[in-house]
Amino acid sequence: MTDHHDMGWVNTYRQGFNFQCPHGELLVAIRSYFSEQEGSDRLWTFECQPAPETLGEPSDCWWDDISRAGMEWTSTCTRNGLVAGVQSKYFESVLDREWQFYCCRYKRRCPYSCMKTTDVPEYYKEEGEMVIPSYGYFIRGAQTTFSGVLRDRQWKYILCRITDFDCEFENL
């Protein structure tokens, strides 16, 4: 990624954003670019793909809990939801962002075989890129660490498969 100016970023530095996949689509790729000069902030871009036909239409979508700026946090879509969007607000006081996932539920399907990606980016302040590694996995949330010194965040994305039958329980 040599020229980072032409990437379809959803934000400018220090600016909030709200990104939602089109109805019936889910998040499949997340990229970011860090700048220390610009408030130790990142530019972000996202890609969506239509959910597999076997999942059908989302039965319900909502904004999940807010994850606070300047803290480490783990956030997974409640009610077996899958990530279909992100909103974020920048806080100058901590040189960090708060985050919120937009989640969609597909009837009574349950996640299983969940795993975490390696750290994205691999080192603080590098470009970050996460593309779902194989078909049939979906983003459920993320676990993040925050460096108070470098004022940057590393993400481990939580990826799961999803049952193709209805199930009766909340599978966290």
From TrEMBL:
It comes from the Eukaryota. It is found in: Secreted. Keywords: Disulfide bond, Secreted. GO terms for cellular component: extracellular matrix; extracellular space. The keyword Nucleotide-binding does not apply. One of its GO terms (biological process) is collagen fibril organization. The keyword Repressor does not apply. Belongs to the dermatopontin family. This is Dermatopontin. It comes from Myripristis murdjan. The gene is DPT.
